[in-house]
Amino acid sequence: MKVLVTGANGMLGKDLCPYLEELGMMVIPTDYDTMDITNPEQTQEVIKKVHPNLIIHCAAYTNVDKAEDDIETATKLNVEGAKNVAIAAQEIDATMVYISTDYVFDGTKTEPYLPTDKPNPINNYGLTKYQGELEVQKHCKKYYIARTSWLYGIYGNNFVETMLKLAKNDKLNVVDDQVGCPTWTIELIQGILKLLNKPYGIYHVCGSGKTSWHGFAQEIFKQENLNVNLKPCTTEAFPRPAKRPKYSVMENNGITRDWKDALSDYLKLRKEY
Q1: How many Cβ atoms sit within 10 Å of the Cβ of residue 159?
Q2: Which of 61, 123, 171, 214 is the most exposed place for a label (fewest CB within 10 A)?
């Protein structure tokens, strides 16, 4: 199988490309310098020339807070970019996987969000990712929308690494009133591959189970045997430009492992780097 990956230099892309190659797939990694997804002509030209069977669209504007002031750039990348890739995929009858987010939801539910639940984003990042979902559905018949959440991996700034850096602080306050599903990049990749055997549509590919950011930090320190003076706090204690959903737990129908087991494997792996 020939797979084109957008955003190949991002945290997910850097894990995804070698993973697919190890499975014997021919991988065409692309990023801004090789295929500018905001340029429809170039996007179509590159995809038509390469003619992949599968396109995994990882490229995105992911700075949640910055998107509040720069919705123009976020829209260009997350909406127009997704549209351009979807149109190009449809032209060559390729399957497209669009990576989306739990932030398409408003967080007002008290039980896990289903793929069929109607999105209602409360920040610009979530809004542009949802609009991107709509563009993919509109322009590409063979699509999978994979919503993920609280992503961490070896090749990017993430919550796990931040907590380990802050572990030496005298006191550490972490938000305890936002609940979601931590997801390791490798779990997301394995989940995406499982989707390819399912009907086209929208899926939730996130860690199984749920926790708060405080609970996530607690588990990191527990598994690393670190004694940290960790205290819970409210979202209001750490005001941010973008609102976050208080509850963004998603039902994944068992597509990935328990988030604690995945975290354990990640913590072992990171020691090799």
Answers
A1: 16
A2: 171
Pairing outcome for strands 211-212 and 179-180: antiparallel
Tokens of 215: 């609970």
> Which residue out of 61, 103, 125, 203 is catalytically annotated?
125
Catalytic annotation on 98?
A: no
Q: What's this model's pTM, rounded to 2 decimal places? A: 0.97
Q: Please, are residues 109 and 163 in contact by the beta-carbon 8 Å criterion? A: no
For the chain, the C-alpha Rg in angstroms (whole number) is 18
DSSP letters of 53-115?
SEEEE------TTGGGT-HHHHHIIIIIHHHHHHHHHHHTT-EEEEEEEGGGS-S--SSPBPT
The Cα 77–Cα 62 span in angstroms is 10
Write the DSSP assignment of 15-46 as a string of letters.
Answer: HHHHHHHHTT-EEEE--TTT--TT-HHHHHHH
Measured over the CA atoms of residue 61, residue 65, residue 70 and residue 75, the dihedral's sign is: positive
Instruction: Copy the structure tokens of residue 236.
Output: 């209001």
Please write the tens of the pLDDT for every residue from 112-166.
999 999 999 999 999 999 999 999 999 999 999 999 999 999 999 999 999 999 9
> Are 94 and 148 a contacting pair, CB within 8 Å?
no
Q: CB neighbours of 77 closer than 8 A, spacing ≥ 6?
A: 37, 38, 59, 60, 61, 128
Q: How far apart are CA 1 and CA 18, in angstroms?
A: 14
pLDDT of residue 273: 73
